[in-house]
Task: inverse folding
């Protein structure tokens, strides 16, 4: 078998592995030289000429002519009588080049050459696969379930590359797949297991939700709306902070859509995960208030040094702030970067009816205050002295005295 025929027999690699002809020829030369080194200890005296256009390979061995019987290295030297068979006018000391046929190197050499070539191509494929998916980390990919295992499912992409979706990266108790199902997930990371790249997918990664927004909401895809932060309890609840670069666009409204039409597909993909979309703001106090939605905050105190915030709410809002299983407050903390402590604001429960101060405040004064809707101590204290003077027939001095009495009640 001639060199050309042997090289053509390797064309299956190009077809199966999608390697261009020039690259394949470079691998052939590299693999061939590796085998020459193993057989002769060096390939320095060989010229390997690869012709990608013809798919041909020429091998020439260069040796120095020595006197008959004085050959010390058969690879590097040739006897004069053997050299004269190649060219009748050769002399001792000259260099002779002789073409070598692959078949003359032996069947074992060719088999080893083939194995070396297969390994080099596989190494190339692994490198290409690693680079391709490394560049895709954080991007969504769709694939077909090929095999379901106890701890993971094997997914094939369009080129039949094997991808892994571990059970730990699936939405708990809600993701169930069978062979043949199409699965969307995000490329979480790419590792090496030995020399083989392993592509790990995820459906619980916050980036999956972020990319779903990008796919499903045109304004996000176009960059008019930016997803600033995403936090999730997969399958249960998520909070997404969005910001618009166009004052004419309401980012929350655009993401949710009319009657939730836009976000419905995302919720369905995430197995009915409850998604809160909130307006991002650099105002920390306002951002915390929005993050605790749907609860309405009465007041809050921020400790920047410890990154903690004390939030005060009316009793009926506390459970909304905490959420089922504590998901709402935990996600709000992750979203804002603050440790949030919730307190009941029992201010109204501590209020005192004005009639309770009958011993210290005259009845006609109490009646005057009640006439403007101030029937409790705190309802009076919430109004300024100026407001009370303008809304009642009481003198400023009288009002100051009343406020003093009421304040003492709460100070005590």
Result:
């Amino acid at each position: 078998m001639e060199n050309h025929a042997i090289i053509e027999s390797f064309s299956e690699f190009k077809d199966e592995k999608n390697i261009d002809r020039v690259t394949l020829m470079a691998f052939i030369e590299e693999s061939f030289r590796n085998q020459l080194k193993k057989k002769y200890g060096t390939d320095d005296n060989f010229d390997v000429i690869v012709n990608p256009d013809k798919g041909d390979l020429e091998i020439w061995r260069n040796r120095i002519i020595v006197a008959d019987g004085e050959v010390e290295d058969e690879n590097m030297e040739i006897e004069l009588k053997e050299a004269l068979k190649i060219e009748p006018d050769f002399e001792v000391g000259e260099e002779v080049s002789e073409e070598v046929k692959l078949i003359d190197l032996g069947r074992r050499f060719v088999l080893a050459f083939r194995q070396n070539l297969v390994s080099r191509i596989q190494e190339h494929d692994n490198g290409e696969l690693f680079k391709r998916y490394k560049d895709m980390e954080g991007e969504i990919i769709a694939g077909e379930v090929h095999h379901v295992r106890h701890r993971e499912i094997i997914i094939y992409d369009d080129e039949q590359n094997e991808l892994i979706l571990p059970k730990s990266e699936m939405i708990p108790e809600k993701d169930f797949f069978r062979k043949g199902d199409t699965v969307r997930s995000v490329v979480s990371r790419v590792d090496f297991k030995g020399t083989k790249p392993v592509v790990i997918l995820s459906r619980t990664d916050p980036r999956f939700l972020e990319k779903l927004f990008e796919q499903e909401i045109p304004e996000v895809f176009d960059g008019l709306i930016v997803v600033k932060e995403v936090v999730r309890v997969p399958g249960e609840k998520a909070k997404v902070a969005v910001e618009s670069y166009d004052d004419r666009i309401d980012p929350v409204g655009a993401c949710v859509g009319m009657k939730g039409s836009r976000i419905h597909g995302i919720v369905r993909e995430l197995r009915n995960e409850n998604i809160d979309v909130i307006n991002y703001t650099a105002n920390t106090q306002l951002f915390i208030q929005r993050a605790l939605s749907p609860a309405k905050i009465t007041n809050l105190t921020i400790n920047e040094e410890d990154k903690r915030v004390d939030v005060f709410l009316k009793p009926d809002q506390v459970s909304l702030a905490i959420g089922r299983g504590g998901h709402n407050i935990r996600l709000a903390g992750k979203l804002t970067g603050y440790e949030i402590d919730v307190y009941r604001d029992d201010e109204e429960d501590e209020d005192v009816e004005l009639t309770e101060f009958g011993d210290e405040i005259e009845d006609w004064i109490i009646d005057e205050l009640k006439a403007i809707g101030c029937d409790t101590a705190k309802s009076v204290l919430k109004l300024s002295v100026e407001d009370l003077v303008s809304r009642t027939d009481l003198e400023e001095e009288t009002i100051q005295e009343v406020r003093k009495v009421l304040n003492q009640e709460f100070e005590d």
In short: The longest helix spans residues 107-134.
